[in-house]
Write a structure and sequence with these properties.
With 347 residues, this protein is of the alpha/beta class. It has helices spanning 2-9, 11-25, 40-55, 102-108, 144-154, 191-204, 220-228, 244-251, 300-316, 318-334, 337-346, and strands at 28-31, 58-63, 78-80, 91-95, 111-116, 138-141, 159-160, 181-185, 210-214, 232-235, 255-259, 293-295. The chain has 11 helices and 12 strands.
Length: 347
């Protein structure tokens, strides 16, 4: 009785108690899109789901029909979207590109949040004449460049939850293999442009002793093993909301060059002071220096030049190579799971 009287007499205390109780009861529900294969964006959704599960905040992961078959998703609570019991105090998180899924959150009148993982898909699936400004939806971004882009478009800056790197999977080997320089690339990322970069490089460097390593159709462990066996990674993907593969390559001890996808500027920094910078957007301060030879999206000649510079640094060895690899390690280390957890807790 004394506790009840204390709350009634102190309105501020009562308000704080009410908010605390609501926050403790709040759950986050995540919509998982019906894709045939697990994309990088889907993997990040599962990362977030596991963090929320450990926090005691996850209501469930929602799917249209059936959950994905990958073993990586088997440990999560899955529900069909129409069967989820969303409450008014809950949060419903939907990745960009699936605006129809927002209806489950709007119908429950809970906080409905669009998680933009690629700035170029912000309006994907949104019917003509429908504007984000007219919908009761909040926003979340996957990187600082995407948050900046959304601020320019929507007039408000969203919070950020970034991907994380599992250092137990993606880490540098004790030593890279001897023999030809091994250059990794991902054929699914703008295959034709990657082939142009390769042809330009080979035309300009007929005596170069290199071996091209396509990374395709592998699970995360297979990707990590391939990256550890390579000396250089060619980033050919754009547009990107974050561009996770180059960061995984940095974690695996590769020198990197290629396209930023714009979202990659969250962690990409130029080795050379005259390297290109994004237009309009000023990259945030980071506690590491140059970690690659990054070029404008589609600049195949610039990417070929970047490969040449990476090979020259490899041949020379010494302090410059050590410093670039150290910057790569520090960048990858910053994206550890505890950092992602901190961002989630802050939100």
């Amino acid at each position: 009785m004394a506790f009840f009287l204390l709350i009634v007499r102190d309105e501020a205390s009562f308000g704080q108690f009410h908010v605390r109780a609501a926050v403790q009861a709040m759950k986050v529900w995540i919509f998982y899109p019906p894709l045939k294969t697990m994309s990088g964006g889907c993997m990040v959704l599962l990362q977030i789901a596991r963090q929320l599960l450990a926090m005691g905040r996850l209501g469930g992961v929602l799917c249209w029909e059936a959950p994905p078959r990958e073993a990586a998703s088997a440990d999560l609570p899955w529900l069909r979207a129409g069967q989820a019991d969303l409450a008014r105090d809950d949060v419903f998180l939907v990745p960009e590109g699936w605006p129809n899924a927002l209806v489950f959150g709007l119908r429950a009148r809970c906080r409905t949040v669009l998680y933009c993982q690629n700035w170029s898909y912000l309006f994907h699936g949104l019917e003509p004449g429908v504007h984000w400004r007219d919908l009761p939806v909040e926003f979340l971004a996957v990187s600082d460049p995407v948050a900046w882009h959304m601020e320019q478009v929507l007039g408000r800056r969203p919070g950020i939850v970034r991907p994380c790197i599992d250092a137990g999977i993606f880490h540098a080997p004790a030593a890279k293999p001897d023999g030809p320089v091994r250059i990794a690339f991902m054929p699914r990322k703008n295959k034709a442009l990657a082939e142009q970069v390769r042809r330009i490089f080979e035309e300009r460097n007929p005596a170069a002793d290199v071996h091209w390593v396509p990374i395709h159709g592998l699970d995360r462990y297979g990707v990590a093993e391939s990256l550890r066996s390579c000396h250089v990674f060619l980033a050919s993907g754009f547009p990107e909301g974050f561009s996770l593969p180059p960061l995984e390559a940095l974690a695996s001890g590769c020198l990197c060059t290629g396209f930023t996808g714009f979202g990659g500027w969250d962690y990409m920094r130029q080795v050379e002071p005259d390297g290109c910078l994004p237009r309009g957007y000023a990259p945030r301060f980071v506690p590491w220096g140059g970690n690659g030879w990054w070029v404008e999206d589609g600049d195949v000649l610039g990417a070929a030049w970047g490969l040449e510079r990476a090979l020259a640094v490899l041949r020379a060895g010494g302090e410059e190579l050590a410093q670039i690899l150290e910057n790569a390690r520090r960048a990858a280390e910053w994206y550890a799971p505890p950092r992602q957890l901190d961002e989630l807790e802050a939100l």
